[in-house]
Structure formats: C-alpha cells, structure tokens
Amino acid sequence: MTGIPLDPVLEQSSLSGQARSSAILITGAGGEVGHGLIRALWESGHRDIVALDIRRLDRELRDLCLDTFVGDICDSALLGRMLAMYEIRVIFHLAALLSTRGEFSPEAAHDVNVGGTMALLKLAAEQSRSHGERVKFVFPSSIAVYGLPDLATKRSAGRIGEDQYLEPTTMYGCNKLYCEHLGRYYQRHYRQLAKDRIPDVIDFRCVRYPGLISADTVPSGGTSDFAPEMIHAAAQQQRYACFVRPDTRIPFMTMPDAIEATMQLARADKSRLRRTVYNLGAFQPSAGEFAAIVGEHFPGAEIEFAPDVERQAIVDSWPEEVDDSAAREDWGYAPRHDLATAFGEYLVPRIRARYASS
Ligand code: AKB
C-alpha cells in the first residue's frame, strides 16, 4: 500500500471499553481539496476515512468513507461523539473560510479558521495522549499568509521564502499564519510547564498552497478563483469578466499535484523535515497569459478584464512566485504539471469531458 503509514487496527477504547476503529479524519471533506484527497486516499488503499463537513457529502464521496459526520468543527459535542467511535491517528484539517468570503464576515472566518483549528489541535493532543502515538496533523496553509507592501516590491522580490513578508492583509491570511504558529506550538511547546507534559505530543506538518486549479470542481469564496473560473466558464461557452488586471501574477498548481504533495508530506520521514511549514509552487502565469492559453484551447472564449479594486489589492499583496526548494529537498516535492502540461494533459481534456457529459 502506498498510503499514509497507518494500518487500520482495532484499539480498545479507554472511554467505553468497546473496540474503536483507527481512522484518518478529514475536515472540510466536501470542499475542493477534500474531494480529491478522499479519492486519492481510497485509491491508495485506505478504508479508514472519517469525513466531517458542515454539509452532507455527495453520495459518491460518502461511499469512499468509513463514516461521515455533518456539523461544525467547533462543536465539541460532535467531536466528542466522533472520538467515542474512532481512534484518530491522522488529521487532514481542510475546513476553512477563504480569503474573499472571510472579508464579508471576518469574525465568522476567525471562529472557523482559528477556533476550528484550536479544537482539532486539542483533539489531536488528547488522542495522542490516549493511544500513546503521536497524531499526525496535516494542515494546508496558503500564499495568503504573505503581505507584500506594494506592487513594486512584489515585482522585484523574486521567489519568496517561507519566512519573508509575513504581514497578511486578509483575515484568512492572518488566521492561516497564526494557525501555522499554533501547530508549531502544539508540536513543540504544548503545556511546556506541566509536570505530566508529553514532549512532541503531535506531529504537525503544513504546506502553503498557491492558487489551486481543479478540472472537477469550481472554487468559491477565494481570491485566486479567477483562473479556475476563467477556464470553466470558457469550457461552458460562458462570458467571463476577470476581477483582476491582466498583468496580475501569482503562483498556481493543479489539484492532482496539490493532493499528491499533501499525501507526500504526510508520508515523509519525520527525520527529514527541517521545517513545519513548506511553500509549494508550480507555475505562475499572469492573468492575461492564462486568458491567452484558455483562448487557444477554447477558441470561442469571451474573456474581459473588469478589475475589482478591493479583490485586486488582495491579490497584489500575494507573491508572484514562491521558493519551494525546502519542500523539494526535504521530501521530494516535484509537481507533475507545468503550465503547458497542466492545460494539455489535465485541465483541457478533463474539463471538456466534464461539460460534454453534463
Ligand atoms: C483563496 O483565494 O483564498 C485561496 C487561497 C489562495 O488560499 N484559494
């Protein structure tokens, strides 16, 4: 099995005396990344996936899960019910309110993004204490943690390393950055003055995704959404008004590469990980270059540029390119798709097939 090193086993529950199945928990399971991750875990042999989402998962995904829960990640009674049934060994904590949506209700974003992560870190620490093995906590962060002060700096900064320009301008970016720190805290310093402290109680691993482009799902609530929206609109012969200028450049990667990288980091030998947080990049077309390629593949595409000042400012604060050399060196990150193969081998054939059959 090429999956996460974790055998489905039955454990004796300390709470109820009943056997509890070992499980991988995925929060935000119904989102774009959740769709791909559940499928990839299933294909690599996992039959121990427990999914949690605020909405009921569609049938196809439910069938790939050992169990599914519908509810809020901040609901401690729900988390308690889950723990009464399952020994959680690995957590992929995907649930989040993204950068655009978060600016309409920043406090709600904080509740979900920070409150939810805190609840799960606590759950992970308690699980580690109860079954005696460190829970692996895999956390996707984002290029939204960066905050370049102005366009001139963005254009001259080159490839941004993990520790540069960390002054995010969105609530989502602030939340992700803080949760990266919380993960590091729980891993290294949690209850550092307590007599019964367990050192390194969780195994926290984090990737910073760039904008993601999936052939199977269309994002909502993000600010990097202009690229996936553009290609999905063109494939359906719909006009698209792009909300950023044509010269806007940020890093992107395909969804299969994001899923593979996330699983690769989860599987990586801990002794090789020099950091808790890793940048990921793959290609960084400008919005204009992206539109031109969409036009080559979908000749009738009608794309106009109608920048939205506020959303433009958010994207202008994100880097043009990230330095992902640490991920490449430490755990072999190597995205399959560059811009040409992303379109030619993945996006165009799959998106065409998707809308041809709908
Ligand atoms: C967003 O646009 O908010 C997300 C992200 C870059 O993390 N896609």
What do you see in this structure?
It is built from 13 helices and 14 strands. The chain has 358 residues and is α/β, with parallel strands linked by helices. It has a domain at 96-213 and 253-282 and 319-338: 3-Layer(aba) Sandwich (Rossmann fold), CATH 3.40.50. Strand 2, helix 1 (32-43) and strand 3 form a beta-alpha-beta unit. The longest helix is centred in the first third of the chain and has 26 residues, at 106-131. Residues 6-16 have low confidence and may be disordered. It binds 2-amino-3-ketobutyric acid.
Describe the structure using short key phrases:
358 residues, alpha/beta, Rossmann fold, eight-stranded mixed beta sheet, two-stranded parallel sheet, 18% strand, binds 2-amino-3-ketobutyric acid
The total of helices stands at 13
Q: Could you tell me how far the N terminus lies from the C terminus, measured between alpha carbons in angstroms?
A: 34 Å
List the bound ligands. 2-amino-3-ketobutyric acid
Query: In CATH, what is the homologous superfamily of the domain at 96-213 and 253-282 and 319-338?
Result: NAD(P)-binding Rossmann-like Domain
Q: Which percent range fits the helix content?
A: 40-55%
What low-confidence regions span 5 or more consecutive residues with pLDDT below 50?
6-16
Structural class of the secondary elements? Answer: alpha/beta
Mean residue pLDDT: 94
CATH fold assignment of the domain at 96-213 and 253-282 and 319-338: Rossmann fold
Number of strands: 14
CATH architecture of the domain at 96-213 and 253-282 and 319-338: 3-Layer(aba) Sandwich
Q: N-to-C SSE series?
A: EEHEHEHEHHEHEHEEHEEHEHEHEHH
Under CATH at level 1, the class of the domain at 96-213 and 253-282 and 319-338 stands as Alpha Beta
Largest sheet: 8 strands, mixed
Shape descriptor:
globular
* Cα-atom radius of gyration: 20 Å
Quote the beta fraction. 15-25%
